Amino acid sequence: MSSSSATAKRKSAAQFRCAECGWTTAKWAGRCGECQAWGTVEEVGGAATRSTTAARVAVPARPIAEVSVESATAAPTGVGELDRVLGGGIVPGAVVLLAGEPGVGKSTLLLDVASRAASHGRTVLYISGEESEAQIRLRAERIGALRPRLLLASETDLGTVLGHIEKSEPDLLVVDSVQTIASSQVDGSAGGVTQVREVAGCLIREAKDKGLATILVGHVTKDGSIAGPRMLEHLVDVVCQFEGERHSRLRMVRAVKNRYGPTDEVGCFDLNESGITGLPDPSGLFLSRMTEPVSGTCVTVSLEGRRPLVAEIQALVSECAGGAPRRATSGLDTNRVAMVLAVLGKRLNIPLARKDVYAATVGGAKVTEPTADLATALALASAHLEQTFPFRLVAFGEVGLSGEVRTVPGCHRRLMEAARLGFTHAIVPAGTADGTPTPENMKVLEVSQLYEALHAALPNTPA
């Protein structure tokens, strides 16, 4: 066989695979044809044919009713808001991935979790690949997290990390972060697709073999997705997103994936100088402290997971100084605010097209669900008419382009939360109270059109 034909045969046997999704192709491509990721297609050699023979079974299969569930019982972390999201705590052998933007407070939260676990007699190993031991010690002193059973190591080599695990035999492992650890047995720099896959795979095997509860910190990209291969989210048991604005003390943890509990729970935290504390009742953070009613404000009730949160929406309408009118929003969906403005102008004849309009939430809250449409419309109308609501009012409902007010899920929970905070009137979509008891000392006004809601909130509005 000539050398040219042998080379052609080797090339035909070569195969390329995407490190993100596993898509294969016979030729190299700069962009994956399946997940559309750039620079993830790598050569994996020829597609050799292999056969796998049956192996000896060490533990025979048994009826599902005879399987013990004690090993899957969650152990509380001591942080109530995090336990709420995880489904009661961390299951031994489970691997939790906590992702968030830089500076949001991931390390502070996990250091507090490690301290609480160590205070209850559990051995905790905290591995940091980003900070020195002295830096972590200073943070621990600031938040009161110094515990004898809290072991600390600053390492970036995977083999050394595994050695620490063998020597200390911890009950809880915290790795901050998985993108800073690298294996000398794998090519590539720390944080690369290959390295992250190897590091995560080894740590997950250790967790499963030893029944070791493990928390991994993950970085995020510019668009908010978790850095590294998508496979990382499939390998771990729980994926949590840690969210928060830099100018706000409020932090939220929500589960994106959870094999041991719900994915519709949200934990709220307050990040301050002395550390991070849970907020079992965060609704008061999103309300203003004004004693006198002010035009342009309306309160709504949003649902974060299954938790109702009362948030105040403020609006300001002013004369346009010239040029194109300005539209500025903070904490609200800009597109939905623009839609509400169009509905007010077309269906209620409220001329806002040539006005500067500003709409924002109080306390850095993010209210992006369509439920806030009705409160946004009432706040804008109140700001334009310069009229205040004559009673403590909440409003929620989705506003359609024809001006109808549509029902939203979780109405009963929203009303109960508003009543608990002392609101006396609620404007809700028609049919909300059908078959559901309304809170005492609260008058519920059902509307089907936006103009009905406006006249119910502002009785002196001209027809």
Walk me through this protein's architecture.
The protein has 463 residues and is of the alpha/beta class. It folds into three domains: 12-45, no CATH class; 74-280, P-loop containing nucleotide triphosphate hydrolases (Rossmann fold, 3-Layer(aba) Sandwich); 285-457, Ribosomal Protein S5, domain 2. The protein is 26% helix and 25% strand. The chain contains eleven helices and 21 strands. It has helices at 3-13, 80-86, 106-119, 133-143, 158-168, 193-210, 231-235, 334-347, 373-385, 411-420, 450-457; strands spanning 14-18, 24-25, 41-46, 95-100, 124-128, 150-154, 172-176, 213-218, 238-243, 250-258, 266-272, 275-278, 297-304, 307-319, 327-330, 355-361, 393-395, 398-399, 405-406, 425-429, 443-447. A nine-stranded mixed sheet has the order 6-5-7-8-4-9-10-11-12, sandwiched between helices. A four-stranded mixed sheet has the order 13-14-16-15. A three-stranded antiparallel sheet has the order 2-1-3. A hairpin with a 5-residue loop joins strand 1 (14-18) and strand 2 (24-25). Helix 8 (334-347) packs across helix 9 (373-385). The longest helix is centred in the middle third of the chain and has 18 residues, at 193-210. The chain is elongated and about 80 Å long. The relative contact order is 0.09. The model is unreliable at 3-12 (pLDDT under 50). Residues 71-220 form the RecA family profile domain. Pfam families: AAA_25, Zn_ribbon_LapB. This is DNA repair protein RadA. Plays a role in repairing double-strand DNA breaks, probably involving stabilizing or processing branched DNA or blocked replication forks. ATP binds at residues 100-107.
